Amino acid sequence: MKAITGIILVVSASCLWAQTEELGKPNIILILADDLGYGDLGYTGSTQIRTPHIDALATSGVQFIQGYVSSAVCAPSRAGLLTGRNQVEFGFDNNLAETQPGFDPAFAGLPVGQMTIADRLKAQGYATGLIGKWHLGDKEQFHPTKRGFDEFWGYLGGSHDYFQSVPNGKGALSPIQSNYKTPKPLTYITDDQGDECVDFIKRHAKEPFFLYASFNAPHAPMQATQEDLALFSHIADQSRRTYAAMVHRLDVNVGKIIRALEAEGLRENTLVVFLSDNGGPADQNASLNAPLNGQKGILLEGGIRVPFIFSWPAKLPTITFDWPVSALDLAPTFLQMAGGEVAEVDFSGVDLMPFLLDEKLNEPHTALMWKFTISSAIREGDWKLISIPDRLPMLFHLPNDRSEQHDVALANLAITEKLLKKLGQWSVRLPHPVFMEGAEWKRKQLELYNKNYALEQPKAKTQSN
After folding, report:
1. Domain boundary residue among 335, 356, 377?
2. Rounded distance, CA 56 to CA 33, Å?
3. Which H or E run contains 62?
């Protein structure tokens, strides 16, 4: 039986197609949160943080109950998301960091031979824009405007201060770049990003557009406005209070984007996608992935399973979809929507639309595989196997154990052996990484598998009105 539940709109797929044809090519907005905890939205069960705008997206379209990203950290996840190819298959197996001995800094970024979905949509007549975080290389050849984006407002690195940038600043204080305007001083960067997204929508309301709204919230540094902190004064832990305030402000700006679409009469024919680039780093930003085990940096569910939403009123029904899907599916889905030929591209992902419109009744993927430095994993059907260097493979039966508390590898040796063999045969065909981060990160990742993670929501009231 197909894993779709919920209220399906009383409109046939053929009628939806007819409406879409009349409206023309759909606009696409990809909203990406940064280091968001799985359990930190209202619709995923938060008892502390109200997120009405993101929740409204979830209830207006497709909620992917088992939505995955292709890596447990920022840069590799984004490389897979933007190309539709599993990033380790073109050597993007580490997070971006200082160039290590023996590696060429000219290769520290998204390989120039890989086309992004912005490249592909631009070829289909779309205006393309990136607002916010890039984190796929800071050398000239990797710049967003050379990777398919007509417009860029944001920063090239992995994080940014929320309140200030410095003309000659480095790292989190780097200057905001833009190729279409002189950036104003920051107010609060989440609000500034939201405002830039609204302006992009207004400028391109008369043509099909692809907007990559790449927010940095709630990634460190942990900084919130006093106004937002006051909403969470009931949370005793200062780090958690700041994090909650940052997620709240992200939600406010998601609402800002949706209102801009409505004001321009574009909401019906715009696919809005929302997800996080990886699970929350509970040890760094006080995020909560409950009921999932693990966090950013590792391949337990809490590192790679994320809130994942499609909302497209003119075409998509209101459903929950319970087959596993991947962020690698976004690029082929977008390209097909835009009128491109998916069959001509060697995507790792698939076009999801036939599965959402009941044209295909099977699951989108027979298996999903991950590799990130020391860890590798495979999900096939209900089973998930994780392999790391200092112990036997771990096997989990997810329908009965979504929190991955019961390793059943030894009790299911035939399944363990089959999955380990498939994973190993895939791993040995992968190319060498084209860059690497420092070796100390391997030890840190291994240690994260030994930590205990909160698996239940705190018994606390939500924020003040």
Report:
1. 356
2. 16
3. strand 62-64
